Amino acid sequence: MTVLKTSMRNFLAHKGRMALSAVAVVLSVAFVCGTLVFSDTMTTTFDKLFAATASDVTVKPKDAAEAGDEGPKTGKPESLPASAVAQVEKADGVKSVEGGVTSDSVTVADSKNKNMGPSSGAPTLAGNWTKNDLRAMEITSGHAPRGPTEVMVDADTADKHDLKLGEELRTITAAGDFKAKISGIATFKVTNPGAAVFYFDTPTAQRELLGATGRFTHLSVTAASGVSDTQLKKNVTETLAADASAYKIKTQKETADDDAKSVGGFLDVMKYAMLGFAGIAFLVGIFLIINTFSMLVAQRTREIGLMRAIGSSRKQVNRSVLVEALLLGVVGSVLGVGAGIGLAVGLMKLMSGMGMELSTKDLTIAWTTPVVGLALGIIVTVLAAYLPARRAGKVSPMAALRDAGTPADGKAGAVRAAIGLLLTGAGVFALYTAGQADKAKDGSLFLGLGVVATLIGFVVIGPVLASFVVRVISAVLLRWFGPVGRMAERNALRNPRRTGATGAALMIGLALVACLSVVGSSMVASATDELDKSVGADFIIQGDQQGLTTKAEKKLEKTPYISHFTRNKEVDADITLPDGRTSKDTSLSAADPSYAKDLRRDTVSGELSAAYGKDAMSVGEEFAKKHRLKVGDKLKVAFDKGRTAELKLAAITGDDGSFDKGAMYVNITTVERYVPAHRMPQTRIAFAQAVDGKQDEAYKALKDTLNAYPQYKVQDQTDFKQDLKDQVGQMLNMVYGLLGLAIIVAILGVVNTLALSVIERTREIGLMRAIGLSRRQLRRMIRMESVVIALFGALLGLGLGMGWGATAQKLLALEGLMVLEIPWPTIITVFFGSAFVGLFAALVPAFRAGRMNVLNAIATE
C-alpha cells in the first residue's frame, strides 16, 4: 500500500511530464484500435452486402471469374444457356429460378462523356433487374427498366453525379455502345461500399453485355419452404448430373464466403500495413517513455536515497517506478481506445469522401479491440520503464544522499558500444550480401535482416555516435552563436545516452522516409530511362480497367495524322515443349508486326520481326534457358478456348529491361486463325506513330477520337512519365502520412526531453541568469540544443534510410529497374525540416525556462 501511495503521489506530482508520455501511448493505441475497428467495419459492410445479394443457390459457368479476379479478356463474361433454367426448375425443393446477367467490363457515361463509374477503384456493374435483386435493393423512384431505351441506377451513383429521371446515359461494352434514359433509382438496403450499379431489362442486358441472346451469366435459385440451402445444392447438382462438370454450384453461404475472401486479401494488406505503422509509433514511443522515466529517476535521486535509508528495498523502489509506468499505461491506453474509435469514424468519413461508402451504422467494435489496445499500451509502457526502474533500484543510499545521481557504469557503456558495433557491422554485411544476390527473392531475406540489424545497432550505439556527430553539427552550426552556441553544445553532450535515445526516436521515422524516397525515385527514374530506350512510338493508348472495344479500335485506326496503329492483346495458352513437358497457363503477347518498331526489344538469338511471321513466335531468354530452347524449335501451343497450333521459335528476346520482360510474342493474325472471333481478347494496350512533323496534330486528333470514351487515355511519352511519377508520388505521400504518426511521437520525445532537462538544470539556469545571461539568450540556448538533437536524429535516419534504399534498388535492378536515383531535394528538405522540428519542439520548454524566477531557481536543490 505504501508503494502504491508513493507512486500515486509521484505520478500526480509530475502531471505535465507524464502527459507528454501519455500522448505517445494514446496516439499509438489509437492507431492500433482505429485500424482494427476500421477493418472490422469494412469486413462487416462487405459481409452484409454479399449475404444480401447471394441467392439460396447460385449456378455459374465453370470458367466464370470469381469476385476480385481479373475480368474476362474478351470483355464479355462467361455465360450459360438459358435452357439451364428449365433443367434446374425440375430439381426437388426449387421454388423459383431466375436467369441473371452481370458484367463489370462496362463504362457508363453521361451526355458530356463523363464517366459515371466510381473513382475509388470499386467496379461499375451492369446487369438485368431480377426479383433476386430485391434482397438487397428497393426501387425508391421511378420504375424498373421495361425496354431497350431504359436503365435504372443505384441511388448512391445518382446522388454523386446528380442524375435525374429521364436523363440519358451511354453504356460502352465489348459488344458496342447504346443509350438509355433513366427510368428508376434503386436504393441499397445495406451499405454499398462504392460500386456503381446499372440495371437493364433482360433482353437488352443479354444482347449488349453478352453479345448474344438466350444466355445468362448465372442462375439464382430460391429454395422452397423447409428446404435447406445445402439440400437444394445437392438436388440441383443431381438434376444437372450430365452437365454438372460445366457449372459451379454454390450455396448462399459459399457464395458470400468466396466473395468475402476476394476482398479479404485487400483488407488484410491494408490492415497489417496500418498496424505496421502503429508498431513503428510504439517503437518510437518506447524511447520517449524510457527517457521520461530515466530523467525522473535521476531528478529523484535524493528522494530514492531517503527511501532506501529508512528501509525501502531495491524491489520496492523498482516496484514504485513500475507502478507509475502502469498508471501511465492504463490512463494512456484507455484514452487511446476511445481515440481509436473516433479515428475509425474519421477514416470512414474520409473513405466516403473518396467514393467508398461506409456507414457508421455498421461500426464494428469487437471485444478483442479494446483488450488488444489496453494490453499493448500497458505492456509496452511497463517494459519501457523497466530499465529506468532497475537503474533506480541500484542507487545506494549513501550515494543518493550525497546527490551523486544514478550510478554511471563505464563497463556497461563499453559493452553497449561493442554490442552496437557488432550489430551494425552484421547489418552492413547483410545489406552488402543482399546487394550481391543473383535473385531478388534470395536477396530480400538479407535486406530484411540488414535493415533490422542496422536499425537496432544504431539505436544501441546512439550514445557513442551522439558524442561525435553532435560535435560535428555544433562546429558547423552552433559556433556562429558564440558562448550561447557552445553552452547548447555542452548541454546536448552532457548526457549522450539521453541525446542518443531522443535522436533515435526521430531517426526511425526519417530512415523509413529516406528509404522509400530512394526506392520510389529509383523506380520512376528506371521506368523513365527504360521508356526512352524501349518505346519508339509517339503515343500510348490504354484503359484503366477495360480493354479497347472493337468500335474504339476502328475509330483510332482512322485517326488522321497517324502513320500506323499497333494493337497488343494478351492470350492464354498451354505450351508443349520439344522435351514433352508442358508450360500451363502461359501468357502470350499477340501484337501487330509494327509492335517490333513501337517497343524496341533486343534479341539474343534470331530476329524479332521473324516472330511476327506466319505460325512463328518468340520467348524470353530466361524461359529459353530454363527449357533449353533454341531458334528453330517447334512448340505446340494450345490456345485457351481455341485450337492447338505448331509454332516455330523465331527469336529469343533479352530480359534486361523492365518493359515486357519475359514476354512471348506472336502475330495477332496467327492467333486469329486458331481462336474463334468471339473468344479473341480485347486490346490491352495500343501504340500510335504520328506522321513525321505532325506530332501535335496527331496528339490532338487522338484526344478528339477518344473524347467519347472516358475509360481510355492517350498519352505521349511526357504524359506517361508524369503519370508514373504521380502514381508513385501518391503512394509515397500516403506512406509519409502514416509515418507522420511516428514523427509526431518523436517530436513529443524531444519536447519531453527538453522540458525535463530544463527542470533538471533549474539551479544552473538560475546561476547563469544571475551572472548576466538574458532571457533571450537562454531561450536561444535551449532552441539550439533542440535543433542539434533533431539534426543528429535526421543525419542518422537519412543516412541509414539511403543505405537501405540503395540496397533495395540493387534488388529491383534484378527485375529490370536499373537506375539508382537519390532524391536530393526530398532529402535536403527533410534535413532542414528537422531543424524546424527542433525549433518547434523547443518553444514551450524555452518559454518556461525564460519565465523562471532567478532567486527561486538558485534556491532550488
Automatic annotation (TrEMBL):
The chain crosses the membrane at residues 272-298, 321-345, 365-387, 414-433, 445-478, 499-519, 734-759, 786-806, 826-847. Its main location: membrane. Residues 19-238, 502-698 form the MacB-like periplasmic core domain. Residues 60-82, 105-128 are annotated as: Disordered. It is found in: Cell membrane. Keywords: Cell membrane, Membrane, Transmembrane, Transmembrane helix. One of its GO terms (molecular function) is transmembrane transporter activity. InterPro entries: ABC3_permease_C, MacB_PCD, Macrolide_Exporter_MacB. This is FtsX-like permease family protein. It comes from Streptomyces aurantiacus JA 4570.
